[in-house]
Amino acid sequence: MKIVLASSEAIPFAKTGGLADVASALSKALAEVGHEISLFLPYYPQSTARRGINSDDFETCPEKVIISVGSKDVEACLLKAKFPNSNVSVYLVDQPRYFDRPELYHEGGCDYQDNCERFIFFSRSVLEFIDKLNLKPDVIHSNDWQTGLIPALLNIEYQDRSDFEKTASVYTIHNMAFQGQYWHWDMLLTGIDWKYFNRHQMEFFGQLNLLKTGIVFSDMITTVSPTYANEIRTERFGYGLHGVLDSHADRLVGILNGVDPSEWNPEIDPNIEANYSAKTVEQGKPRCKAALQARLELPQRSDVPLLGTISRMTDQKGFSLILDAAENLLTTDVQMIFLGTGDPLHEVAFTDLAKRFPDKVATYIGFDEALAHQIEAGLDIFLMPSQFEPCGLNQMYSLIYGTVPLVHEVGGLADSVIDASGENIENGTANGFSFWHFDATVLYRQMRRAVEMYSDKQTWNQLIQTGMTKDWSWNQSAQNYLSVYQRACSIRAHKTESVSSSP
Fold first, then answer.
1. What is the pTM of this model?
2. Domains of the chain
3. Which residues form the Glycosyl transferase family domain (predicted)?
């Protein structure tokens, strides 16, 4: 198949969250099994420079297009790159006025005021460059609100062009909390007829909603885990769009994300003290634990349970719960490590925790990619008590690295972590710890339970082996996406036939 993916970020070029990992890993996995993949994203010069990528790494394409955004005509240029060891063609839409900024979406806690305009421009640019490059895709796969306009444009404006008449649209929701809602006058920027600004299509409580737009106009909708696909059809997780999703449930599929083994693999990871596999984890992991303790100036003790997390420090990620539970757990013989940035109150609280327990707690405010890998390899228990989690990747990284995850039983966490109940241990499916009631006391009890089981080396090693020996790569996920693409093409073909046969 010829497949175009459109995303607002992708590693190694730009990243704020899991979307970047998914866009890159899925593209590479599809290309590896023989499909023709083109990935489009904006060119953020400041982001790519920070990530060690400069202009010499890109090829300047001769193609240019003029994009109408409301009353403005703005030129879009195109750069081309490739992933190392991959046939994926990466196209970066270049327009400094929109994308040459310190951050991707916001600065100083405030969104860029022209975000709607920026990503309307990007969405239109993707379609125009697909046409210019004569790609003729079978499927355009858009992701999150930033590209939610693409399925609408494909249906309303581009379906009659010869290059797009057979092109199906697939739309993936990575997080319902971010919907791209803007005041109604921004509808003018889309260039789409006002008749589509109605409660069934692009309007949401008087505002333009780009996530809803993508949902309504796409041929197939996916989200990033089977459990999350069910959750977002409920009031609790749907953020007001549960009714819309329920009405389109026949086109909604949940596919658990995979892990890119070229990025996350303890057997070849250059960032960690010792490489190891499921067969050698008992030799390699203690060395990684000791090196991590040394780097973060904790006593190098192999016997003490080492818990921690890598995350945005927000209430959504469960940091209020972790703080309360940690206060109690630190009265026992444990160590804890925290890496991340986020809510200033949490940053201060966890920094203070490390000051009060210098032999037990290390807190690193910021982000360090190498340290993140070292934490995954060095921890015994990974804490991920998210209030909601569409998919999550760190719990899968942890399983791959022989670190036992402790999670709140929601979204992709519920789909990947099997609780260490007596029955699950006996039948060999247990790989971690999970709880349902989102409460600090419940989390504390689960942490105590995990710490106590840590002393039972036979059972603990069984949990590690169960996690490490499962295939967490994109192989199965990519096949599931291909099935969705085929369904989308069938739906598109049926629509085309219906239109052509109508009087």
1. 0.91
2. 2-258+476-501 (3.40.50.2000), 280-472 (3.40.50.2000)
3. 300-450
Q: Per the annotation, where are the binding residues?
A: 15
Two structure tokens written together for 463? 């949990």
Confidence band for 494, pLDDT divided at 50, 70 and 90: confident
Using pLDDT thresholds of 50, 70 and 90, give the confidence band for residue 283: very high
Quick: pLDDT tens for 100-125: 999 999 988 799 999 999 999 999 99
Residue 339, C-beta contacts closer than 8 angstroms, at least 6 positions apart:
308, 309, 310, 311, 363, 364, 366, 367, 368, 371, 372, 375
Quote the longest CA-to-CA distance of the chain.
79
Q: Nearest-CA neighbor of 323 among 296, 346, 300, 304?
A: 346
| Amino acid symbol at 370 | A
CA dist 368 to 271, 375, 404, Å?
A: 11, 10, 22
61-65, 125-129, 363-367, 494-498: the lowest-pLDDT one: 494-498
* Residues 380, 403 contacting (CB under 8 angstroms): yes
Taking the C-alpha atoms of residue 359 and residue 152, their distance in angstroms, rounded to an integer, is 56
CA–CA separation, 58 and 306 (whole Å): 43
| Tokens, residue 322 | 């972790």
- d(C-alpha 499, C-alpha 489), whole Å: 15
DSSP string, 77-92: EEEEEE-TT---EEEE
Which residue, chain included where needed, has tokens 């921004």?
Answer: 186
- The residue among 4, 63, 67 whose CA lies nearest residue 36 is 4
Q: Whole-angstrom Cα distance, residue 84 to residue 52? A: 14
Residue among 300, 305, 302 at smallest CA distance from 453: 305
Strand partners, 142: 6, 171
Residue 390: left if φ>0, alpha if ψ -120 to 50, beta else—which one?
alpha
Q: State how far the Cα of 259 lies from the Cα of 211, in Å rounded to an integer.
A: 25
Binding residues for ADP-alpha-D-glucose: 15
The burial of 250, by beta-carbon neighbours within 10 Å (0-12 exposed, 13-18 middle, 19 or more buried), is given as exposed
- What own/partner pairs with CB < 8 Å and gap ≥ 24 does 283-288 have? 285/377, 285/378, 285/401, 285/402, 288/374, 288/377, 288/378
Residue 501: pLDDT band with limits 50, 70, 90: low
CA contacts within 13 A on the Cβ side of 195: 2
Instruction: Detail the DSSP E strand segments found in 70-186.
Output: 72-82, 89-94, 106-107, 110-111, 139-143, 168-173, 181-183
CB 287 within 8 A of CB 273: yes
Predicted pLDDT of residue 17: 82
Higher-confidence residue of 107 and 232: namely 232
SS (H, E, C) 418-434: CECCHHHHHHCCCCEEE
